[in-house]
Structures are given as C-alpha cells and as structure tokens.
Amino acid sequence: MAVTQLEQFLYQALYDAAFALLAAQPWKTLGEDDVFAVQNPDDGELQFAKITGCEGDQCELTIFSGARGLDMLWSLSNTPDMAFVSDLCCDVPGLCFAAVPKGMLDSLDRDIVAAITLPEAFDGHYPVFRSLRPGYYPSRLNISDICLLAHVLRQATVLVREIQSGAASLAVVPGHEDDYVARLATKDEQGAIAWRTDRVTMILDELLPRSTPTADSDALAAVAAKRTGKQELRLELLLAPPDPAQADENGAVPATYVFLVSDHQSCDPLCAQIAMPGASLLEFRQGLPAVLLELLGRLPARPRLIHVELQSLQDSMSEMLAAMGIALDQHAMPPECAKEQAALLKQVAEMDMPLPATLWF
Predict the structure, then answer these.
(1) Model's pTM, two decimal places?
(2) Which bin fits 101, alpha (ψ -120 to 50), beta or left (φ > 0)?
C-alpha cells in the first residue's frame, strides 16, 4: 500500500519519537509494573501507559484510555498467567509500540520504513505500531492514532529523562496510593501545547462501580432444585480466525467472539454463542450468564463443577452459579483443549447463518 505524503510526514514524527524513547533506555529506569499517564491534548482523556521488556527488540509501550484502561493495565500486571486475562485487551481502546527485527515487519511496515529517514545510530530494531480497537484485530494506525501515539512517546521520553535526573519519581507516596504521575497538556488559543508533570488521582472503585449480573429467578430455582450429577462443564471464550474480506477502509478486520460450553471430561461441545463480527466484547460477555442458565435448564442434573480459565468469566458467572449450588474452579486449561477449539472454530467459519446466533449440540 502506498504511503501518502501526509502519512510520510506524520510517520516520520512518530518514528522519531519512538527512536528518542529507545535512546532514553527506559528499561533501566522503569519497572515492569510502573504505570504513568499522558493526557490527550485534543480531548483531555488520560492515556495510561506502561513500558515493558528490556533493551533492543524486547521494549514495548502500551497505552489504554481512561479509568477502564487503567483498571485493565493493573489486571494485566497482577495476574501470574496471561491466559487468565487474555481477553481484556479486547475491551478498551489502546495503542501499542514495539521494537522488532526487520524480519517481523509486514508489507505495510516495510512501505513506511522505506518512506522515512532512519537515525544514523539505528541498531536494526524497527518500531512497529498498532491500534487496539475493541471488536477488531490489531490494525494499522489512523491519522489521529499517529498523532496521539507520537504525543505519548515524546512525553514518555520527557518523563523518563525527569526520573533519571531526579526531577520526578513514580514511587508511591504513602496515603496517596491512588495517585499517578502524569504529563498534562494545556492548549492556548493558537493551539500551542504546554506540558507539565503532575499527579492525578484515580480511585477505580468510585470511577468503575461494579454491576451485579441479574438472572431469571425462576430459572435459577429450577436448576437449583435438580439433583447434582457427576458431569463437569468447561466455559471458554474463543476468537474466531480473522476474515480479511471483512476489513474496513483502514484495514481493520472485525473480531468474532465465540462462547463455548463443553463437557470437561469428553470435550464434547454442548452449546456455543457466536457474536456479531465487530461486536463489543464487554456487551457480549454480559449476555453469557443467560446462555449458560438456559443450557443448565436443559440438562437432566446439575453439573457438580464448572471449570473456567478467564477471570472475566469467573467474575460474571460466580454469583449465579453459587446461587444454584454449583462449584466453580478457575485454572489454566489443558493443552489438548486447543485441538477441540480449532475444530469448533473451523466449523463456525464454514456455517452460513445470520449472527449473532446460539448453537445447541
């Protein structure tokens, strides 16, 4: 794909900002769990960022927007197994940057690199950038994404330099555990941006009140009245293979989520809920307890145990299952599940039916 003159100009500024951050060697200053914020000068939204990895092609910067983005960054940081929270990156708009060897560049990345000027001290690790858009696979940046990520990279570099000089610190201040260091922007009448380093308070329990899922009380009572059998179920949230033919004008391919309930011992599928391509994963999850409740109503006995891997499924199902006397076990799934999942997703891809849809096996 040809790079336009405007894209060349903007990408040059973005690559320059990325190379400046790498030159500051943030991996020597920031810990893997350090989180800071950069304000979007256009809409005032705080972009929460963390830098992970180390020198060379291991350095990455990821940003997510607002309080939900901050909540997600902490979930990603505090979970020992990334598989438990792998779906969270589909919930909140974000942008990411990574330095990779040339062999990992795709055709668009190579076109962009060919159109810009690399620094004289280039070490062979190429910056790549992706947009994390809810309901879509990671995709190329649009114009506003390029401008925002360039701001974040530049201000991250300033903050790293301030920390290295002793002018700033990300250390938690006792009594102010909900404060975060931020680079805040002020625009004057001419559109010029002035930046300053300050702290912002983000009390997530107040900003993100947790809703309690509701369920059909009669259906709950009917399942609770059944005898407990020997069957164990497994709940999984899968991502169907991308269909490039569905890409939008920016090349973003919509994601299709599949909620699978299967027998834990035999691996036989019992039901699957398939989302509309590009649907909000957050909204899709909210409807899953009702799907599970309907399946439980169809079974001759209550399962004695339900297995989940994703913490989001555990959170959304635990209260309902407890009300029916069904135990819930959250743990990593065995590797053999991957073969079963691939077979189901292939079956879903070959189906010609309107979506969303529920399949009963």
Answers:
(1) 0.86
(2) beta
